[in-house]
C-alpha cells in the first residue's frame, strides 16, 4: 500500500501535477506534548505502528506537562486556518473544540470496529459529541498515585504509608536521611495534580461534591480548609529549587535516590521504566494514602480535526491503529497508563500496570471513578484554570488556607 501511494505521489510530481493530494493521503501531522523520555518512547510505538501501515508522521511537539502550552499553540494554528490532523487532548477540551465545529468524524471506523462496546463509557463521554465519534482514546491515566524510591523506603522501615499521619511520618524519615522528601515541580498543573489526590483522600463524596458538582458549600467549607492545610504541610517537604521544575526532572530525583517520593500520575512510571528501573525492586507504586479503591482518571485522546478530504483516509487509519488491542497493550506498557479498551489482557504489564488496570475496573464498577480536576476531566478549562490559580497561590504561600477556600468558592462561581 505504502509503496503504491509513494509511487503514485512520485509520478504525480514527475508529471507536474504537484502530487500534494497523493502525498497528503499518507501523512499525519500530530500535535502533542509528549516530550519527556518515557513519553517520547511511548509515542515512538505509535509512530512506528503508523509507519508500518504506510502513514508518515509529521511531528509537532509542544513541550509542557499537562498540555497547557500545547493548547495555546493549537488555538493559534486553528485560528490561522491550519489545523493539524490529530491533536493529543484531554477531556473537556475535546468537547470545547467539538462545540466549535472544528472536529472531524470517526463514526465509520468506530462502527466497523465496534468501539461502542469496548471503550468505557467514562471515556466515550469525551470521545463523542452529539452522538458522533470525534476522538480516539489512547489510554487511561490516573492521578492519585505516589512513586517511592524503594531503597529510601526500606531505610525508613519499609512500610507503605496507609494514611495521612503515616505519610507525614515517612516524609520526616526521608528528611532525616538527608534526601528531599517530596520531589515536586512548582507548575500550576503539578500543584493541582497533588491537590486532586489530597482532596480525594477526604473521601469520594468530598471529591465529587467539590470538583464534579462544584458545590459552593464544599468548595468553601471547613474540610477544604483542611485540604489546603495538607498542601501547606506537603510544601514544607519540597526542596528550594522546586519552582518551575518539569515533572520528569522531579521523577528523576526519585529515580536517582535524591528524593523519597513524587505524587504524580502514572506517566511518571514511564520515566522509571525508561531509566531501567523495576517496580517492587527499585521503586514502589501505591495510591495516595486514603485513596485506595478510588481513581481520578484522565485519558489522552487524539482529537481529529476537520482536514482536507484527501487527508481523511490517513486520519482514519491512525484512529483505527490507536484502537487496535495489540497497539493498546504495546503503547500503554511503555506509557505507564492502562488501555483505553476493556478487552485488553494485562499480561504484558508490570505489577504497577496490572494494578492500574484492576483499580480502574473496580472503581468503574463501584462508582468510585472520577474525572481528574487537574487534567481536564472534571470541568471545562475555564473552571479548571480558576482552580489552578487558587491552588498554586496557596501552595506558594500567597494565600492562607482560610483565604484560599473563600477564593476557591468565588473563583469557581465566577468561572462556571
Ligand atoms: C497528562 C497526560 C499524560 C502526560 C502528562 C505529563 O496530562 O495525560 O499523558 O503526558 O500530562 O505531560
TrEMBL record:
Keyword Transport: yes
Name by which UniProt lists this protein: Probable sugar-binding periplasmic protein
Family matches, as Pfam families: SBP_bac_1 (PF01547)
SUPFAM superfamilies assigned: Periplasmic binding protein-like II
Signal peptide location: 1-24
InterPro entries: Bact_solute-bd_prot1 (IPR050490), SBP (IPR006059)
Function of the protein: Part of a binding-protein-dependent transport system for a sugar.
Species assigned in the record: Shinella zoogloeoides
Amino acid at each position: 500500500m505504502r509503496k503504491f501511494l509513494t509511487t503514485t505521489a512520485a509520478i504525480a510530481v514527475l508529471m507536474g501535477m504537484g502530487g500534494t493530494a497523493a502525498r497528503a493521503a499518507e501523512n499525519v501531522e500530530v500535535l502533542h506534548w509528549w516530550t519527556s523520555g518515557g513519553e517520547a518512547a511511548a509515542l515512538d510505538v505509535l509512530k512506528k505502528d503508523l509507519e508500518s501501515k504506510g502513514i508518515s508522521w509529521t511531528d509537532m511537539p509542544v513541550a509542557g506537562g499537562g498540555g497547557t502550552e500545547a493548547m495555546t499553540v493549537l488555538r493559534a494554528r486553528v485560528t490561522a486556518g491550519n489545523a493539524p490532523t490529530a491533536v493529543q487532548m484531554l477531556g473537556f477540551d475535546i468537547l470545547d473544540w467539538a462545540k466549535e465545529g472544528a472536529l472531524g468524524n470517526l463514526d465509520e471506523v468506530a462502527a466497523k470496529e465496534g468501539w461502542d462496546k469496548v471503550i468505557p463509557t467514562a471515556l466515550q463521554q469525551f470521545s463523542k459529541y452529539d452522538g458522533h465519534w470525534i476522538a480516539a482514546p489512547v489510554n487511561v491515566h490516573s492521578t492519585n498515585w505516589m512513586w517511592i524510591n524503594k531503597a529510601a523506603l526500606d531505610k525508613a522501615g519499609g512500610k507503605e504509608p496507609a494514611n495521612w499521619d503515616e505519610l507525614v511520618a515517612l516524609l520526616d524519615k526521608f528528611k532525616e536521611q538527608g534526601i528531599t522528601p517530596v520531589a515536586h515541580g512548582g507548575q500550576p498543573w503539578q500543584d493541582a495534580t497533588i491537590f486532586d489526590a489530597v482532596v480525594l483522600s477526604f473521601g469520594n463524596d468530598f471529591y465529587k461534591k467539590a470538583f464534579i458538582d462544584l458545590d459552593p458549600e464544599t468548595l468553601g467549607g471547613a474540610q477544604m480548609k483542611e485540604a489546603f492545610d495538607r498542601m501547606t504541610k506537603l510544601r514544607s517537604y519540597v526542596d528550594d529549587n522546586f519552582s518551575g521544575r518539569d515533572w520528569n526532572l522531579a521523577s528523576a530525583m526519585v529515580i536517582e535516590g535524591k528524593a523519597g517520593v513524587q505524587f504524580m500520575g502514572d506517566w511518571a512510571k514511564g520515566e522509571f521504566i525508561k531509566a531501567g528501573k523495576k517496580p517492587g525492586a527499585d521503586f514502589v507504586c501505591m495510591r495516595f494514602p486514603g485513596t485506595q479503591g478510588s481513581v481520578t482518571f484522565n485519558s489522552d485522546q487524539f482529537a481529529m480535526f476537520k482536514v482536507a478530504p484527501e487527508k481523511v483516509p490517513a486520519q482514519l487509519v491512525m484512529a483505527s491503529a490507536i484502537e487496535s488491542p495489540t497497539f493498546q497493550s504495546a503503547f500503554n506498557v511503555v506509557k505507564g497508563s492502562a488501555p483505553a479498551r476493556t478487552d485488553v489482557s494485562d499480561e504484558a504489564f508490570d505489577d504497577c500496570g496490572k494494578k492500574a488496570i484492576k483499580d480502574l475496573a473496580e472503581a468503574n464498577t463501584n462508582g468510585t471513578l472520577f474525572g481528574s480536576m487537574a487534567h481536564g476531566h472534571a470541568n471545562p478549562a475555564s473552571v479548571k484554570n480558576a482552580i489552578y490559580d487558587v491552588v498554586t497561590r496557596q501552595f506558594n504561600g500567597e494565600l492562607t488556607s482560610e483565604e484560599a477556600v473563600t477564593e476557591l468558592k468565588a473563583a469557581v462561581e465566577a468561572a462556571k
